[in-house]
Amino acid sequence: MANDLPTVRWGIVATGMISSWFVEDLLLPTWPGKRANHIIQSIGSSSLEKGQKFHEKYVLPHLAQNSGVDPKIYPDYASVYNDPDVDVVYIGTPHSFHKQNCIDAISAGKNVLCEKAFTLTQADAKEVTKLAKEKGVFLMEAMWTRFYPLVKELRRLLYEEKAIGRVWRTFADFGLSYDVESLPDNSRLKDLSMGAGTLLDIGIYSLTWGVLTLEENVGKGEHPKILAAQTLQSGVETISSWILNYTDTGRHGILTSTSNVRSANNFARIEGSKGVISIHGPTSSPESFTVKLHDEEGEGKLYTFDKPGRGFYWEADAVAVDLKEGRKENETINWAETERIMGIMDEIRRQGGARFPGDTF
């Protein structure tokens, strides 16, 4: 019963595209495996006008699904952090602002779900998690893909059923197509102070697929060695390629991101001793995968998954359950895992040459 589920009241920080996707998903009437109810309690934007437009377009048409709660609209973020009716703050700003947004929200005593990439560097991530520990609040990186039922089933097949035998290699790519050099200098996709480049924006998904498919106990076993290269255009990284080298198991992840070429639909391939798994759909929001054994006739077995909307509700449900159980971290992507992923991306940039203002390596 929906009334038996925990309810979370969200404060939304920033009114860009990613926040609109998150809000639209949470206002759906239901979804597969629904574990919580969600209320959009308040919305903070850089201006009242932007906040009102966001409210009219993404919240007002679904007010009944919002438990009849008409959210407060604030012309700043601080009012969301200080709203006593907000249980969790969702931070949907560009990643260069995440560190300060998190610090402000945590300092106000709020629980936080912060979009990926969590910060610009591992050092910044550690500063944020340290503060969360001191303040005793819940904090999680919003890497929504990790919470997909597709991912859970994929990992079950790989490491419980061992459906393709011994896992050896994963190839994963995330590519978009836009001309960086033609963008205005203040575009977040070109401004290095905002973390411009593909690695933190979309390459983090390729990296995520690498660790999810090559590590039997994600983040708890062997950590990979990194070999990386990057292409820079006007100082902005437009191609990143890196290998995750697991010397104990012999596994390799061959992972890439780019803004020069759009990814194919079959964006990832996992190779094992008995077969291959191909994953289909957008890299951030997969739709299905196919298991094909080496000695099998035909195209293999296709696994599909029901996904109304985009799929942000599964991570939001995870937050709600953690809060109900009194946890401050999420098991799927705990603070140590977020820090580790940021450290890997630091190393890719260190080897590849992409630099942000303030980098110390």
TrEMBL record:
Keyword Oxidoreductase: yes
Reactions accelerated catalytically: D-xylose + NADP(+) = D-xylono-1,5-lactone + NADPH + H(+)
Superkingdom: Eukaryota
Keywords: Oxidoreductase
GO molecular function, one term: D-xylose 1-dehydrogenase (NADP+) activity
Pfam families named among the record's database cross-references: GFO_IDH_MocA, GFO_IDH_MocA_C3
Domain named GFO/IDH/MocA-like oxidoreductase: residues: 158-277
EC number: 1.1.1.179
Residue ranges annotated for the Gfo/Idh/MocA-like oxidoreductase N-terminal domain, each copy included: 9-141
PANTHER family reported for this sequence: OXIDOREDUCTASES, TRANS-1,2-DIHYDROBENZENE-1,2-DIOL DEHYDROGENASE
Family, per entry: Belongs to the Gfo/Idh/MocA family.
Protein name as annotated: D-xylose 1-dehydrogenase (NADP(+), D-xylono-1,5-lactone-forming)
Biological source species: Dactylellina haptotyla (strain CBS 200.50) (Nematode-trapping fungus)
Highest classification ranks of the organism: Eukaryota, Fungi, Dikarya, Ascomycota, Pezizomycotina
